[in-house]
Amino acid sequence: MTAAPEELYEVELQVNGVQRTASVPARRLLSDFLRHDLGLTGTHVGCEHGVCGACTVIVDGRPMRSCLMLAVSARGHEITTVEGLGTPGDMHPVQQAFRECHGLQCGFCTPGFLTTVAAFIEENPSPTEEDAREAVSGNLCRCTGYQNIVKATVRAAEIARERRA
């Protein structure tokens, strides 16, 4: 006996400033939708339980674990993935700071850190190291001791303030 085809639902949302429409199964995770349907593979999937933070994207300005959100729940929302932060020629302050401060090693967790920190510095433009440590505490990295990630978070806020001035 073959399984009945899964019903598809139309999802219309904005991803990295581009309006996107796709038909997805009801249980498709936002992380899978971004990676497999839209080809945005910068969103990494680690634990698939919302614990590691590798899949973090920005939803309407707030960091969100994309492995815990269904694609159909993202209807009408604005999503920013790591690909939407900046370009090599015009880096987002967070990307520039992580580069300057060596805030990455293997890079697997980096997209989640970048999106988390990008949302964080919008809400807290002058964080202390303690604020920065708290902001990234939900993202796991197995390669670093977090010192450079914390430095990069504080530096990203400095760069953002400089650019606004």
Can you give a write-up of this model?
By secondary structure, this protein is an alpha+beta fold. It folds into 2 domains: 8-84, Beta-grasp domain (Ubiquitin-like (UB roll), Roll), CATH 3.10.20.30; 93-164, DNA polymerase, domain 1 (Orthogonal Bundle). Helices cover 33% and strands 16% of the residues. The protein has 5 helices and 5 strands. It has helices spanning 30-37, 93-100, 110-123, 129-135, 147-164, and strands at 8-15, 18-25, 56-59, 62-65, 78-80. A 5-stranded mixed sheet has the order 2-1-5-3-4, with helices on both faces. The radius of gyration is 17 Å and the shape is elongated. The model has no long low-confidence stretch (mean pLDDT 95).
Fill in the keyword field for this structure.
single chain; 165 residues; alpha+beta; Ubiquitin-like (UB roll); DNA polymerase, domain 1; 2 domains; 5-stranded mixed β-sheet; 5 helices; elongated
Total number of domains: 2
* Dominant shape: elongated
Q: Within the CATH hierarchy, at the fold level, what is the topology of the largest domain?
A: Ubiquitin-like (UB roll)
**Beta-strand content bin:** 15-25%
What's the CATH architecture name of the largest domain?
Roll
Provide the low-confidence segments as ranges: none
Distance between the termini: 66 Å
Major sheet attributes: 5 strands, mixed
Tell me the series of helices and strands, N- to C-terminal. EEHEEEHHHH
- Our count of helices gives 5
Strand line-up in the sheet with most strands: 2-1-5-3-4
- What does the radius of gyration come to? 17 Å
Number of strands: 5
Task: Give the full name of the CATH homologous superfamily of the largest domain.
Answer: Beta-grasp domain
* Helical fraction: 25-40%
Just give the CATH class of the largest domain. Alpha Beta
Mean pLDDT: 95
Structural class: alpha+beta
